[in-house]
Every structure is written in C-alpha cells, then in structure tokens.
Amino acid sequence: MRSLGDQVRDWHLGAQAVARGDWSSALRLFSGISEQPARICFNMGCVHLLAGDPEAALRAFDQAVTKDPCMAVGFLQRGVANFQLERFQGALSDFQLALAQLRGNTVIDYTQLGLRFRLQAWEVLFNVASAQCQLGLWTQAADTLVEAISKWPERAQDGLDTALNQVQKQATLQPRQVPRGEVFRPPRRHLEHLQPVDFLGTAKVVVSAIPSDQHSGLQPQQGHQVEPRGNKTPAPTGRVLSGHTSPALFHRPPVSGGPGPSACEDPLGAGEAGAEGPESSVTVTVQCAFTVALKAPRGADLSHLRALLAQALPHQAQQGQFSYRAPNDAGPWTPLPGEEQLQSAWRDAALGPRGLQLQCRGAGGRPVLRQVVAQHDYLAQGPEDLDLRRGDVVDVLCEVDEAWLEGHLDGRIGIFPKCFVVADSACEEPPPGPRPQAQAD
C-alpha cells in the first residue's frame, strides 16, 4: 500500500498536470490515489469534462456527491455533465440540488478547501434557467433569472439583463461551470512535509569587512570595540547594524572619489556625508535579506544602485523594489518607482547625518504598497493563505477585499486576514518604561 506522502504527491502532481493541460497524466495520477475522497473524484470529473468525455465525468461526479452530499459545486458540475449529454431534466435536478446546498447564502468560497472558485447563488440560478429553457419552460426560466438578478452585485447586472432578454425571445442559454483548469489542490501544509529537511542548515558566504583583505581568508569574529573617529588603524572587525535582522555588513570599495571610511570608522556615513562635495561618495544603506552598505556617487540613479547591489545580492537587485525612509527614521517606507523620486530622496538625505537609507523588497517585481506587522499568529487554512507569526513584517502587494490582504513574507506569497495585522508605523513606538542605560567602556 502506498504511503500517505506518495498519495499527496500524486495529488499535487495531478493538479499541476491539469494546469498545463495534460489530461491523461492528470487522470493517471488521480486514479492512483487509493480510497479516493470526494475532492479527488470531483477533480477527475472536471478533467473528463475538459477531455470531452461527459459520460465519464458524470460517473466521477456521482461518486463525489455520494461521498460528500453537501458538495454544492459537485452538484453544479454534475448538472453541467448532464446538460452536455442532453439530459436536461437531470441537469435541472442537479442545479436545484446545488442551490439547496447553498442554504440561503449568496456565495460559497471554496478557496480554503483548495479550489480557487467562489460558487455564487446567481450562477446556480442562471444554470437552473438554462435547463428550464431546454425543457421549454420559458416563463419559469424568466422568473428564475429575475431572482438571479436580485442576487447579482449591482455593478454587474447588465449581463443578466441581457440573458433575460434572450429568454424572453425564447433563445437558449449555456450553463456556467467551474473555470477551466481549476481543481482541488492539496493543503500547502501537507506539501511542506514532503520536502526534505536539512537539520544542519547551509553555509553562508561572508565577505570580509577589512578594506585591505584581498578575499584570501575570513576575519575571526571579535568583540565590539569603540575607536575614536580620528583613529587611522581601526580594529578589523565587521559590525552588525543595530535594529536590522542582517547577520553581517558587507563593505564595498568606493566607486569614485577618494578612499572612504572603513566599516568600523563610519558604516553609515555619519557626520562626513554633508561635508563632501556633490561628486564625492556617500554611504547608501540598503535593507534586503541582509543589510548592505554600499559606496555610491551622490545622486546616483536607480540603474547604478542596482548594479552596485548586484555585486553582493544579485537576486534582490533584479527582483526587488527600492523604497526610501526619511532621515528621521520615523516614517514608513516610500516606494521609489522612478528617477524623480530617487533624486528627491537624495536631496532629503543631504539634510541628515546617516546617508541614504533604502529598502529593497518585493515579490517577482510586484510593487509593495506598504508594510504591516502581524499582531497574532495565523495558521494557513488553505494553499492560498500566508502563515503569520506574531511580529512578522509583511509586504502588502494588494488588497483582496475589505477583510483580506495579499502579501509577501520570506519568499512566500499568500492572503491573510486584515484584522490580524497593523500598519508598520503603529509598531515603531518603543514600549513604555525606562530604557536600558548604555555602559561605557
């Protein structure tokens, strides 16, 4: 007997085969799952419909609704199979059963169960009317469409009005069905368990922070030392920027002008950036998965900054989006879509002592609208959800509706409830109470 992991893997591979239009591979993979649950039977029925075999689809949907009598979408698809077989009375009965399983609701959202489809009450009523037209019940079909119009969003009533006009002229309608290629997919948490786990982790390449080091070796980690600014031979240690999650600070040589400060002397360009000329180099701090300090000519354009960043983090440089934070470090990150916004950021940076601070984030080039912070843990309920842990900072990519957001976190994209997060700026104030006192060396 095959293991549960193998069956989940076949389910996942079968869904991928449907997405690329390989019906035979999808049916073979779904058929190999033992004791097929209702969702697998539903998937097979959808594939048979796509392959042009409504008779086989009807048998598969029969099994699906037998195993799950409350599967409204299963009755809908079985009605479509009966309709294609010109069994219009059976189709009408199935569409009415689907409507009954809605239990007075206007929509059933199957997304959390792995099917990217929302079954709307007006769609089921439309299908009821399409079967009534085929049976010659024109008056009943018109009445059904009037009821469907009452359940359709106001902004989209024109489509049903057109259908009503067709029925009044005794023109038939074609039923609606689940979008092509959409099937139930396995829960993402099950897929994550199929991946091999590396308990030892992977090594990270660390670039030496010593200006004179020619990459011949790595400098051992040393304790934090405070050196006077005028010291010409600072201790050769890397320095982790406070407040960032980055494990190291990468130091790159200046692109133009004279030699700049070492990583220990002036990692953020404090104090000296304002005194240098317009053609001199300044420090640009870019937050990615790591925090990287780059030396760039003042006023450098976006392409120049991406080229510098690509020397250390090529993937982020290609896919990420630059955002800017004001010199006081209190405001939110503002996206920099073009050169005009970047030059404005350069002008603001000239007023502060810390150089230019940028953030490079994003998902496949998609713009980041804003950032939010998770206030509660959220366990994904379906493959489209995004797992959250309290304190996670999430890039918001779009607003799905009034209650849900789509976001990007640690290379993953998904939706999550808006009520579980707050704006990033709302979490920047320090908690009340005395602050710890710094100890002088």
Structural features, described:
This protein has 441 residues and is of the alpha+beta class. It has three domains: 4-193, Serine Threonine Protein Phosphatase 5, Tetratricopeptide repeat (Alpha Horseshoe), CATH 1.25.40.10; 249-361, Ubiquitin-like (UB roll), CATH 3.10.20.90; 370-427, Roll (SH3 type barrels), CATH 2.30.30.40. It is built from 13 helices and 13 strands. The protein has helices at residues 4-19, 23-31, 38-50, 54-67, 72-84, 88-101, 121-134, 138-151, 157-168, 188-194, 302-310, 314-319, 339-349, and strands spanning 107-109, 118-120, 249-251, 281-287, 291-297, 321-324, 334-335, 356-361, 370-374, 393-399, 404-409, 412-417, 421-423. The strands form three sheets. Strands 3-5-4-8-6-7 form a six-stranded mixed β-sheet. The protein has a five-stranded antiparallel β-sheet with strand order 12-11-10-9-13, with no helix packed on it. A hairpin with a 3-residue loop joins strand 4 (281-287) and strand 5. The longest helix has 16 residues, at 4-19. It starts with a helix and ends in an 18-residue tail after the last strand. Residues 215-278 and 428-441 have low confidence and may be disordered.
